[in-house]
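Risk register update: the risk of archive-format incompatibility is retired. Evidence:
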Amino acid sequence: MAVASAETTLAQPQAITWQERIAIIRQVWRLAVPVILTNFLQSLVEVIDVFMVGRLGPIAIAAVGMSGAIRFLVLVMMLSVAAGGMTMIAQAKGARDPERMSFVTRQSISSGILISLVLTVVG
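Archived output:
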């Protein structure tokens, strides 16, 4: 029994037209703009915090800087859970496995709620 080469078993990619490329670029920007705006606004909030607290002295500014670092750590934790969950949900959807998709969705939401509750109690 001969082993088929990868070249013969995989379909050759078709050329993407300019219209399809433009549609893909628009779709990427449609997804990216809210993320860009969110990051910009979060940075703006931190700058405004420093301006508002700036009159209180260097210790207050240091406290704002420290709280910004903690806020960023929490954000990274939550985004990690969300990114991992979205990846696993997309894989389950691609595999047409609604049970796994439902399970991963529930676990992602539960993990986010659990992290939020722990951080609420701690901080």
